[in-house]
Design goal:
Distance between the termini: 44 Å
Shape: elongated
Radius of gyration: 26 Å
Helix content: 40-55%
Structural class: alpha+beta
Order of helices and strands: HHHHHHEEHHHHHEEHEEEEEEEEH
Strand content: 5-15%
Number of strands: 12
């Protein structure tokens, strides 16, 4: 708060968002809540910074972010891009189709990189959707932009801390050829807005849709319209993000006029909250024949020093039976079996042993055979859902 105090609550939140955006934390096996705070501050900026959340707000909010996590896992960006390219070249003459394909090819990394970053971090995606909720609108199922997608894309690079810098690694900045395209697009629309005296995006689009403009010769006007089509080519993929929000109902969590927060009933269901918590912060990946540590800490295989072990080799356990205790900062947490099975081998000897997150603790034989979805089936499922989302705006 000392770092982000401003002239108003709005100013304070904006400064807080900027401090969080510019902050970098580095270290081995680092786990922080920086992305959570950045996304949450931007949720309030995009909704209402004077909102009055109660103590029950955060878990539903995280549940909504968990829904975005699950949705992002169902989206294949490569399929989305291919679908977009086919749609934008369909019905064009061979020459126009070739030109459009070339424009899309030049724009691919410019558009795809920030989308990949947002889908990889649901907290960032939640923040982006919040601060951009007024940049687009739905009317009878059709999405329209209130802001120029070029400006939205430029702001997105800044939001993700990918601004151009000649001294930073390429992985941390917008790539130079993408920066050139984006800079040219921003300059084009800035000049055109002044020449046409159009400050709003809708007005500029209406002007560009006309067959002619008395301020320009016919050939120049045709070149302006062609440049407009080229600069906008591929930016339709940004519409995938609000389509995802619409599909999950992300915007159903909002601030009422009295500044209380409207929370949909589904986000208050405890079982659903637990499922979305696992989607947002999935447990360590384990094979079907093992149980791994959900967190690091100190391992204890029994309730007390004189008590028997919870399980030993050859024991059968049911789902929900205690398996061990892990101590973290003097907090003793009992860990229960996620399924029923038989212990083949206990891999930790003794009590008070330090374990790490994801470490295999028990080799087991589950009572039920775990069916693993084939990669081909998973890819087909993601393709089908991605194409379903694309139909919402193509």
């Amino acid at each position: 708060l000392l770092l982000t105090v401003g002239d108003s609550r709005q100013h304070s939140y904006e400064r807080m968002a900027e401090v969080l955006r510019a902050t970098s934390l580095r270290g081995p096996d680092l786990h922080t809540n920086l992305a959570f705070h950045y996304g949450l501050v931007n949720w309030f900026l995009g909704n209402q910074i004077n909102a009055r959340p109660t103590t029950k707000f955060i878990v539903p909010y995280l549940t909504a972010v968990g829904e975005l996590t699950r949705e992002a896992e169902r989206v294949d960006l490569d399929v989305a891009w291919q679908t977009l390219c086919r749609a934008r070249t369909a019905g064009l003459s061979p020459t126009d189709a070739k030109d459009m394909a070339a424009a899309l090819s030049r724009k691919q990394t410019l558009v795809m990189r920030p989308l990949q970053a947002l889908l990889a971090s649901p907290h960032l995606l939640a923040g982006w959707l919040s601060i951009n909720k007024l940049a687009f609108s739905y009317d009878k199922g059709h999405l329209s932009w209130a802001d120029n997608p070029v400006d939205v894309l430029s702001d997105t690079y800044h939001f993700l801390k990918l601004d151009w810098s000649p001294d930073s690694p390429a992985a941390n900045v917008i790539w130079d050829h993408d920066q050139q395209i984006l800079s040219e697009a921003e300059g084009f629309y800035s000049d055109l807005s002044q020449r046409l005296d159009k400050d709003d995006w809708a007005g500029l689009c209406d002007a560009l849709a006309r067959d002619s403009d008395e301020r320009f010769e016919a050939s120049v006007w045709a070149e302006i319209q062609a440049a407009h089509r080229g600069f906008q080519a591929g930016l339709e993929l940004l519409e995938l993000l609000p389509a995802m929000a619409r599909f999950t109902g992300f915007y159903e969590l909002y601030v009422n006029e009295d500044l209380t927060i409207h929370i949909p009933d589904r986000l208050l269901d405890q079982d659903y909250q637990g499922a979305m918590a696992k989607a947002l912060a999935p447990p360590p990946v384990a094979k079907s024949d093992e149980i791994v540590a959900a967190s690091g800490g100190m391992f204890y295989g029994r309730e007390a020093p004189e008590a028997p072990l919870y399980v030993t080799a050859g024991d059968h356990f049911e789902a929900g039976d205690p398996l061990y205790i892990v101590e973290v900062m003097k907090m003793f947490n009992k860990v229960y079996a996620p399924f029923a099975g038989t212990v083949d081998e206990v891999l930790i000897e003794g009590d008070g042993v330090i374990i790490s997150k994801g470490q295999t603790l028990f080799k087991v034989t589950p009572d039920e055979k775990v069916e693993v979805e084939a990669p081909e089936a998973m890819a087909a499922r993601r393709r089908a859902h991605t194409e379903e989302l694309m139909q919402m705006f193509l």
